[in-house]
Model the fold of this input.
Amino acid sequence: MRHAQAKTSGSDTGTKPASLERAGLDYELIELFFFAYRDFTSDPDVILEKRGFGRAHHRVLHFVDREPGMTVADLLETLKITKQSLARVLKQLIDGGYIHQVAGPEDRRQRMLYTTHEGKALAKALAEPQSKRIADALAKLGPEGRDTVRRFLASMKTGSV
Done:
């Protein structure tokens, strides 16, 4: 299998960088995103697979752990998915003892979500290798790197551009 390399012929040859060779499309950064995402998710994927879970479980667990008491409606809005898409994943996390739900204080139909002790431990185990990968990459960028990357990623979110 061919491993794509970032090509940069630049001002030294008087030609456009390879990333801009085709109709202004930045293939170099697109490929770097693909590879970064693949590597960023690889460690958690191994941990999740041992439990029969996937990336959808990871996303749900991450956001519930980060915002204890979030409602199912809030989670649906955060993830931009349908109730049907969430139902199976959430049921597996609840049945597995990673998340528990509590009826809302004013509206008993409202379901508030919390990670259990096991859920917190799993969320931490999934975040640790990702956090280390981020820290290692940021260390190479210098003191302003984190803020620049944060602003860049925030601007990539839908509706932020």
Q: What stands out?
A: Helices lie at 27-49, 55-66, 72-79, 83-95, 117-139, 145-156.
